[in-house]
Amino acid sequence: MNRVTTESIASTAILVVMVFLFSWRSIEAANVSYDHRSLTIGNRRQLIISAAIHYPRSVPAMWPSLVQTAKEGGCNAIESYVFWNGHEPSPGKYYFGGRYNIVKFIKIVQQAGMHMILRIGPFVAAEWNYGGVPVWLHYVPGTVFRADNEPWKHYMESFTTYIVNLLKQEKLFAPQGGPIILSQVENEYGYYEKDYGEGGKRYAQWSASMAVSQNIGVPWMMCQQWDAPPTVISTCNGFYCDQFTPNTPDKPKIWTENWPGWFKTFGGRDPHRPAEDVAYSVARFFGKGGSVHNYYMYHGGTNFGRTSGGPFITTSYDYEAPIDEYGLPRLPKWGHLKDLHKAIMLSENLLISGEHQNFTLGHSLEADVYTDSSGTCAAFLSNLDDKNDKAVMFRNTSYHLPAWSVSILPDCKTEVFNTAKVTSKSSKVEMLPEDLKSSSGLKWEVFSEKPGIWGAADFVKNELVDHINTTKDTTDYLWYTTSITVSENEAFLKKGSSPVLFIESKGHTLHVFINKEYLGTATGNGTHVPFKLKKPVALKAGENNIDLLSMTVGLANAGSFYEWVGAGLTSVSIKGFNKGTLNLTNSKWSYKLGVEGEHLELFKPGNSGAVKWTVTTKPPKKQPLTWYKVVIEPPSGSEPVGLDMISMGKGMAWLNGEEIGRYWPRIARKNSPNDECVKECDYRGKFMPDKCLTGCGEPSQRWYHVPRSWFKSSGNELVIFEEKGGNPMKIKLSKRKVSVV
Ligand code: GAL
Q1: How many Å lie between the centroid of ligand 1 and the Cα of residue 536?
Q2: What residue ranges line ligand 1, CB within 6 angstroms?
Q3: Domain boundaries, the chain
Q4: 257, 563, 598, 639: which one is catalytic?
Q5: Would 428-449+600-666+701-740 and 459-594 be classified into the same CATH topology?
Q6: Would you say residue 581 has pLDDT above 80?
Q7: Is the N end or the C end of the chain the one with fewer CB atoms within 10 Å?
């Protein structure tokens, strides 16, 4: 059975590629306009079912099949944000290589015969580091992000214009024959506008007119922007948008973000939004006259390297989306939504051009009926009751409507789809472990860093500095080091008792080393980032070293003035001396940015000569601040691959110099007694991210996606930097096997 299904998945993959090759067609130049019902592309009104796939969250080798899987799932458009900090790493220096090859990505969408929706932002939120804005911009004097000030407006406009010109040059906008039919400026500014005062309003207006002045020939939108000027379309984001009305009556109803799942944090539980509820929300939207709908995300993918926002957003951005992180359709969600899309599209013309009537069929029961002059008719029958199934009479026929469901009758008679009746197949997902292998036997090379300053200190100060202002996010790591002299007369030395170290930090995480020994870790969590550490310390007479490794785990990506949120230590003291508490906050602190191996780029193939590695077949366990390097063969087969890091502590990993990202198999824990996990999830009733959580007591993220295209046929260099200690002998490459059941 399993073998058969694996083979059938392989042949489906071949088919997907063939369909892709043959479905190439160029889209004709088409002007895009709109009225109160829908977009008009060329001369045709169209319903748009769009799939968000963020290009830097996968690799170019995956793009064609991701786009094709979205198309097979019944989507006719792909949506992505544009990721400013990936494209402009330093002012005026642009990058469009590798995962950031946006032109290549859009051309793949075009070749698949799909439309493209481009959300330029360039502020994007998106659980992406710093909301997509380059960190350097925060340090341009006078800049306040998303507000009415010259530096922000200058850099934001320059970038937007650069992108628009690039895409115009490549003829990617619909009037040029390209796939882009819609664009977005800013992102959900309406939530924050009031915090920015009168200037906020001015900025919103300015960004809309700046966008419109770009003359791209396709409409611009702003999501969740209630006072959006009439030159742009205000759109809706959320779990449900059936009640949404746009900013002016001549605008179509656009749902820019329907969240079919949710994101995850290190230490957080697994969100789950049932397919029935996602389908319900989509059917309600189209039933109520919505005409552009986008799944955020349809493929969430991976926050490779240090791209995740936060703090604490996991490296995986799976999002429980219809296509999973590894690029495989998630069943039954993908299949159920595919069936839904088919049912909706049967009535496309009526939905956008027919006459709409809404009436009640009884308590919590509604009919949305579309008719035209020729007598054709389509109906969406909804049961809004979140507990009781209902029988309804519609046009002399009785229909059974499960609680919280919508039935679609494309001829006002035949129920072709009900959102709560899932007929799609399900799947079983396994991560099949495979030991690391090498043709000449596994040889580990090990390099351990010493806690504290390596080389010379970067600077010395009699205070605790802000972490982010110091590193400017060039690294996660910042060493705060000092030393104290303990007199032989201290009573605790004689009594054998231990003084207590007390540290306060704005976040995000901290490893403590006393006299070059690892003492412990303290960390904030997803909702409360500042933290305190209180731990007994064994001090000796004479000099004692205190080396504190403060870490960021993804910078804040949303909220008013989010770019000013700091991180790092704010107070350090030790209690239990003869004279009481020793306050070290204003002691002499020596600082060092980054860890040594990072500075020497030990993760880059060929850079190994920079330090002296120790070769061993058995690498040490539980050793902090250690680099591991091992040459491996690619895993067998062709399934997608995840690095199993369950045996490790926290750190970063690379394959052949490509950044896999941060790993941290941190256990999903309860922060309050209400933080439960569910055994069964009831799809009925309004969904919230904490409604159907699972994974209590398990690592939030155990496997880390390593794209197949990163492997060479042999001699692959896997490099790991482990901060606190773990057991590298147990690291495995697991193959993701999905069997249809
Ligand atoms: C929205 C935002 C998206 C993303 C989403 C949650 O409010 O626009 O960028 O952050 O929330 O995944």
Answers
A1: 42
A2: 124-127, 187-188, 237, 257, 263
A3: 6-346, 348-415, 428-449+600-666+701-740, 459-594
A4: 257
A5: yes
A6: yes
A7: N
